[in-house]
Design goal:
With 180 residues, the protein is an alpha+beta fold. Helix content is 28%, strand content 22%.
Length: 180
């Protein structure tokens, strides 16, 4: 039997970084890179996307341009649905639905011209960082949030270089140790 080439598989399966699922994983990687935690591997279906110390981070992604032919730019919306999270470390599921992470990072690929879209260029992304407590207080059971209502919650809008500090600040606020 032939042993398959890993790089060939990755190129075959994940070459198009604009597809929703691949872009979402890339957004998680970008946030992990900013936090300096790329030495840990991604855990599929965990109760939150990233862990830095004792901080759980949920990463959401959206873009104006998509892989498919579009007649207009996509409307920006992020999934914020409370869920019964599965804890990969303990191999248990939460008894009730909720938002498990301390911080949400909403990653928006801002480019509006597909020809110039390069999801690997962090300068093409804007990040909106929000303590989960704000979502829980303001949009308790809401399943999705569009960009304008998200901005009305006053997330910290930042570039890649500010992301790590913003996540730590939001985590402190989420734990009642700071002001938003």
């Amino acid at each position: 039997m032939t042993y398959l080439d890993r790089q060939e598989f990755l190129a075959w399966a994940y070459d198009d970084l604009l597809t929703n699922t691949t872009r979402g994983v890339l957004a998680e990687y970008i946030v992990a890179k900013s936090l300096g935690i790329c030495d840990t591997k991604r855990v599929e279906w965990d109760k939150y996307d990233l862990v830095i110390g004792d901080i759980g981070v949920e990463v959401k992604s959206a873009a104006y341009v998509q892989t498919w032919k579009q007649t207009r730019l996509s409307e920006i919306a992020f999934n914020i649905r409370p869920a019964k999270g599965w804890d990969a470390r303990a191999n248990t599921s939460a008894a009730s639905a909720g938002r498990s992470a301390d911080v949400y990072v909403f990653c928006l690929l801002t480019v509006t011209d597909r020809e110039h879209a390069d999801p690997l260029n962090v300068a093409q992304w804007t990040f909106y960082v929000l303590p989960t407590s704000v979502l829980n207080r303001e949009v308790t059971e809401q399943k999705t949030i569009r960009l304008r209502p998200l901005k009305s919650l006053r997330p910290h809008e930042c570039a890649y270089e500010e992301l790590k500090a913003s996540i730590h600040q939001a985590a402190a606020v989420n734990r009642g140790l700071g002001h938003w």
